[in-house]
Structures are given as structure tokens and as C-alpha cells.
Task: structure prediction
Amino acid sequence: MTLRNTPQTYGSLHKALHWLMALLILSQFIIAWILINLPKNSPLGSKLFQWHVLVGLFILILVIVRILWRLNNPRVLPAETLQFIAPKASSRIHLFLYFAMLLMPISGYLRVTAKGHNLNAFGLTIPSLWQNPNLALFSKTTHNYLAYVLLATIALHILSAFIREGTVVLKRML
Result:
């Protein structure tokens, strides 16, 4: 297995980034679900929020690395099992996933900092750059609704790997 992509398969770094981000995004949904079900000012909620911030920052860094890696590697050709329309749909789903993986941490950052608060997580302080209550509300709404759309898109991504293309596509990512 090579580090770089080839036209036939994904390289080991691409695969590692894909699965690492899948685990991190899954953890973000679990943490967020626990957070929204905890009472306000819960000590556990405070720690979970700090983890949510750090994991979100790490996801933002990793998605930038993934985009740069993808731009500097050969494009993997669609599996032969894909029908004519499927590559276009697959391409659009992937494009949206990248967009959402960028927008989620940015909207999360703005959700908190546009209220005038710095983000603090385990001694790391990420300063507030803008104070705007309207931006804070817009970012909160974006972050919340985009989470559901991202979850639905991930489900579609997973289903298409199993149903439309069988195990061909899944084997290329393992």
C-alpha cells in the first residue's frame, strides 16, 4: 500500500485521515447529544464542552490537511460499479461533506465568540475576534441545523457505500 493515492485506490494517508475524521465526527455528535441533555452549569457539561471545542479545532485542522492532500494527489477514478449519474452525485456529496466539515467548527467558534466570549479549553484560549449578537444567533442556528444535515449526509454516504456500490467502494477505503 502506498502513502499517496493512485487512480485505482486511495493511499494509506487518505484512508487514515478519512477514518480518523469519521471517529472524531462521531465523537462530536455523541458529546453534543450528551451536552444538550445535561443541566446547565453541570461540571460534566463544562468538561464535555471543552472536549467538544478541542475536537472541533482538531477536525478543522484535519479537514484543511485533507483538502490540501486531496488537491496534491491523483484523483481516484470512480468504481466501475458506479452508474453514469452516481459519480456526479457522489462528487456532490463529498463536496458538501468537506464544506460542512469546514463550516461546523467555524460556526461553532462564532456561536460562542460573537457573544464576546473567548473559547477556553484545557488552558488553550481562542480569542473572540468579533462581537455581534446577530452573528452569534445566526451561527448558533447554522451550527445546530447543519449538524442534522451533516448527519443525514453522512448516513447517505455510508448507505451508498454499502447499497449502490456493494463492497467495491468500501474495500477501496479499508
In short: Residues 12-173 form a domain with the Fumarate Reductase Cytochrome B subunit fold (CATH 1.20.950). The mean pLDDT is 87.
